[in-house]
Each structure stands twice: as structure tokens, then as C-alpha cells.
Write the C-alpha cells for this entry.
Amino acid sequence: MNRQVVDLVTSPNEFFARERRDPALLGPAVVVALAGVFVGINSLVLVPLRSQGVSGEAMVYLYAGVAFGWITTILTMFLLWIFYAGAFFTVATYLFDGSGDFRKLLKLAGWGFVGQIAASVVSVMAKGIIYTQIDPAAGAVVAQIQTHPLFTVASTVSMVGFFWSMWLWSYAIRYSLHLSLIRSLVAVVVPVVISAGLFFVTRLFPGMS
């Protein structure tokens, strides 16, 4: 497993060329689960700072919500794995006449979540530093967090990690559906852009969701 991850990071082309011969489900499933764990930590690590002043029964509900949010994040990561694999398969086969097995694409695409694991780990470290430098007694905790230079770093790293995942997904499509790398990258970009666009529309116009 460790050797696989090293090859995935340093030589993705060789990694996916080898994995396509007999892809297993366990490895990518573990990667997706870890992505959910670390993305969850990344999104929840600053909750204690934002909960200053909360006590008693409200604190119990708060941490119950945190635990539920963490579990939900892990489950959501698995749903995203299936959703993106399905979207990639649809675009690649209908737009570029790709041919191959969806199950193979699903297994190979799971490895792409390594990018989000790495980004989340770095982001958690940055937010951990923020945690030690915020003064709750000064008030406006959320504003202190969002204006801290490392908060921007954490957000940027998360975005870079997702772009890395997109790059790895391109190789997964290439070696499972027999397309060029450029066409595989387009097959990744199209559903990602559409889903991101829908997300921002629903955020800007909540009544549409």
C-alpha cells in the first residue's frame, strides 16, 4: 500500500498503467475513507474556537453535531466517488466514444482522492497554527480566523489538492476507457465545472435548491 501511494504521487502514468491490469477495490476504498476523515477534520478543526461562550447542554449538542458532521463527510466522500466516476464515464463514453468497464474506472478513480488527503493534512496543520494564535477574549473570533494569513493558505492548498485529484482522475479515465490524456482531462473538467456551477447557483439563489 505504501509503495502504491509513492508511485501514485511520483509516477501517476506508470501507476495507473500497472493498476489497470487487475485493479482492486480495497486500496481506493481506503483512500476515499481517509479523504473523508481528513476533510472532516479540516472542516471541523476550528469549531472549538467558534464555540466560545457555549456551555452546558448546548455544548453537548454542538459536539454531537460535530461528530455527525464528521460521519456525514466520510459518507459524502464515498457518494462523491461514485458520482464523479459515473459522470466521468458518461462524458467520456458519449462525448469521446471511450470504451471500457465502469467498475474498472470506479476502482481507478478512487485513487484520485489522494490529492484531497494531502491537501487536507496541510490545511489542518495551518489551521492548527491559527488555533494557537487566536485570542477568544478579543472577540470576533470568526473574523480573526478568516483574516489570518494562514487561513488563506489553507483555502489555497485545499483548491490545489482538488486540482491534483482532477489530474489523477484523468489518468484513471485514460487507462480504463482508452482515451488520450487530453480527452480524459476534458472528461474530468466538464462534470466538475457543471457541479461547481450548480453549487454556486444554489448558494447565490437558495430558493432554487
Q: What stands out?
A: The CA atoms of residues 4 and 198 lie 35 Å apart.
